[in-house]
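Give me structure tokens for this 368-residue protein.
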Amino acid sequence: MKRQLILEDGTVFKGEAFGSDTDKIGEVVFNTGMTGYQEILSDPSYCGQIVTLTYPLIGNYGINRDDFESINPAISGFIVKEAADCPSNWRNEISLDEMLKSKGIPGISGIDTRKLTRIIRRHGTLKGAICRIEKKPEEIIEQLKATVAPTDQVKRVSTKTAYPSPGRGKRIALVDFGMKHGILRELNDRDCDVVVLPYNVTASEILLLNPDGVMLSNGPGNPKDVPEAIEMIQGIQGKVPLFGICLGHQLFALANRADTEKMKFGHRGSNHPVQDLRTGKVALTSQNHGYTVQRESIERTNLEVTHIALNDKTIEGLKHKEYPAFTVQYHPEASPGPVDANYLFDEFLSMIESEKEEGEAKCQNVQI
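Here you go.
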């Protein structure tokens, strides 16, 4: 069955349909990872987006039960050069096509994904529609031009109620802005006692839990669309150690009077080099973001830049000069991608321990 991809600039690609037979509109972006399509599909940070994979063959190792980063994918559509019909892997359970059908996600294959990627790189991300072949392009283009970008992505993907993920170690309040399960896995692997909280949790509600630390998760969309989170961060920083990832990093910057801006086409892939300015070491990182913290805005804050992207020199890490708080723009939990930056979870727990020891020492001095 034929299907078409129509972009708001008037470009039309015709290809083969796979996945759900629904028509969907979304922001068209590209990811350069060679593997990890299941994790990409289920990453809540892609809420409302149509993702193009630049690697030409997708679906060859199928879909398994273990590599999902969320239960219900929020992605709007999937674009590939070739979708494998007969996956082969010892963990394979269903095909990519079957998975997309079950989740209501339309896909299109057989188009020139290199050409599409070059269009996005030249013009920036574009609104697009995956639709039936009989739809008239001029009508869809008018519809795309009239479509307003959504502002409720975080609300759509965040948990609606708090829930625990028990452990015997440090208690971590994990604020879910569109959390990848990889973050929760890393904390559980370190025996943390995690409480996952909705995006609109207040500072007072978090402090009532008496957490040892607070984790700000990744998530979709523009950080300025989540003002309640900015207020919450301002209410907890300095009172409890804090670690932010991706959207959590951007929200932390906004909470400290820095600014963010939309990137031309963002960073989405599994091999982005990032340098730690404190050590000079470079890590290959997994990334998925369309906004960045403005470098000039950092000068009016109490924040210090700790990491930069080597490809374009954008900010990839921040640290508060006074409070126990740091953030990174990339994904140390990987899934997919290299685990070079996995050590940041250990640094977070070490920071919590240091703050605890310092607090106990102050109490002893007061008693003396």
